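Researcher: I've been going back and forth with a colleague about how HAD-IB family hydrolase might be arranged in three dimensions. Neither of us has a model we trust, so I'd like an independent prediction. The organism is Actinomycetospora straminea, in case that matters for your notes. Sequence below.
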Amino acid sequence: MSDPDHRFQDLMDAVDAAPDGPEVGAFFDFDGTVIAGYSVTAFIRHHIRHLDLHPRTTLGTLANGWQGLNDEEDFRKFLGITLRTWAGRTPEELEKIGNKLFRDEIGPSVYPESWRLIRAHLEKGHTVVLASSATRFQVEPAAKALGVDHTIYTAVEIGEDGTLTGRPDGRSPYGEGKAAAVKEFAAAHDVDLDASFAYSNGGEDVPFLATVAHPAAVNPSAGLRGAAAERAWPVVDFTGRPWTTPVEVARTAATFAGMMGGFATGLGLGLLGGSRRAGLNLGIGLGGDLSLMASGVSLDVYGARHIWESQPAVFLFNHQSQLDVLVLGGLLRGNFAPVAKKELANDVLFGGLMRLLETAFIDRADNAQARKALEPAVERLREGTSIVIAPEGTRSPTPTPGRFKKGAFHLAMQAGVPIVPLVFRNTGALMSRNAMIIHPGVVQVAVLPPVDVSDWTREDLDERIEGVRQQYLHTLAHWPGE
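Model: Here is an independent structure prediction for HAD-IB family hydrolase. You can compare it with whatever you and your colleague have in mind.
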């Protein structure tokens, strides 16, 4: 284990050693701590794309950020420039924009290490708080996705007409203001700061970190790094997103060429032998191997025996990126048919391939059509062909799996086959939600024991499904063998 890994494990061990219960607080700064970069830049890009941000405002915001923020007054000026962009908009408009930006841009930048720390605190029953000087439009979508119930943020003033005035409402939680807000929150929620934790990356947060017994400087600025050294606070640098290089662009192109070439070759050989299914299986395995080899991605699989011992089955996987498709090919090798949303039928990269694989395409907006589309999938299961499906129905912006839909579980119940959860730990780190470039690395996969659904009923289905989802959360937070 490398030294940074040791330091991160020290943070996890400190959480594990802490008392259980809500009286222990865990306060996380947001920008640069939970996510890489700054959420405000996603909003600026959005406004530029929609031509509703004046160039002078953009330059003013960037110039103030580049010059640095030395105190609360500097921050207030910087904030004022940003908030004036929103003047005249309704809170509902900003909430809609914030949710979309989190899903498409901000969420995929969540540090895996921060996610694991947040999960560790939640599992201990601690009171977890995102404490940020950003607005609720930036912070609350993240809190909801991460399962965090509490937020501290800069409130915005709402005029009598129900629109934003472009001014903050009260003191922003920045510098001493954040420390004051944390103390106020702790008093209101019976949180013991002498047993609590705080994490931040910025030098302005020294007063905030000093409010708790267990502060930690993560991804620290030069100012915070120096302050942490003086105070003997733990310092940990998280793994950032890899840079895209021309080599990776070329490798990604080779990846998809290898996938299609390998699949076509395997399918052709199978058809020559007189078996379409044998061709599909050979093509899936060969295409998966060639694509992973070209991309520089390898698989580290725990519990692989559950794949072969449990077929036919409904294989579930937590969906974070297009890389998942390549991983499935290399992992399962064949003898499966996918179930996917109908939009993927026309996907440039995978649409043609998925049609060849006899995918059941589901219209998520039409329940009657969805049930009808699943009928062939039930027949395939009964005939011995496994089904692969992402129960969330879409890619998750963070490592936290979204709410599981019922279709996959109805399939297993109707066909009388088990469910086998496939937990992908870091496909989103090597290829984020909307990315087109694959970065080389190791994808970790945990194949969990099959789930017998023979005694499941419609009455207890919601509870059973959430139980499976909790298996994913527990596995992601406590990886087998670590």
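Researcher: What would you highlight for our discussion?
Model: I'd start with this: DSSP finds 19 helices and 15 strands in the chain. After that, consider the following. Residues 61-67 have pLDDT under 50 and may be disordered.
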